[in-house]
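Appendix C reproduces, verbatim, an entry submitted by the partner laboratory led by Prof. M.T., so that reviewers can inspect both the input and the predicted structure.
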Amino acid sequence: MVLLSHDEHPDNLDRSGRALLADVPLVLTTPGGGQRLGDKATGLADWESAELDRPGGGTVTVTGVPAVHGPGPREEAEAITGQVVGFVLTGDGLPTVYVSGDNASLDAVGETAERFGPVDTAILFAGAPRFAGLFDGAAIVLDSAHAAEATQILGARRVVPVHYDSWAHFTEGRDALQAAFTAAGLADHLDWGHLG
């Protein structure tokens, strides 16, 4: 299974990623992406869920949650950057995991926290990507300070930062994230290792 925040930008689904999807049994993504990506893709609207069988028995529920790929109202951002979705994974006896997707909205984080908080692990897309001619240079995904604030809103025990290096449009990297979490008294929540 692949959780795909959105399919319209090459930093989320490039050519090699599209080739990989041919061998994946299920892709959960935005409603629009579900239509564009073929039979193996399922789009999840806000609060819509898919229940998946676990290999050892039981199920995992994946719920689509709000995300906004830019500043301001969702409708305005979507008109420029397209649809984006976050995810929450839950199951009996399993930790609750939040995957932010390319989200810049703390309001969206708050809506998710109201339904699912506190979460055990938050996988936060960060890096504060910016483009000079887009949204007056505002970040289109969480900056480091907002990632720390999202951690507090979610009541997250552990945070795995992703999406903060390897692209020229990222303006904040690991050092900025570490500094923001340290300033917020949350440095011990950061997990730079593997998800396992």
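Residues 46-189 form a domain with the Metallo-beta-lactamase; Chain A fold (CATH 3.60.15.10). Additional entries are available on request from the coordinating office.
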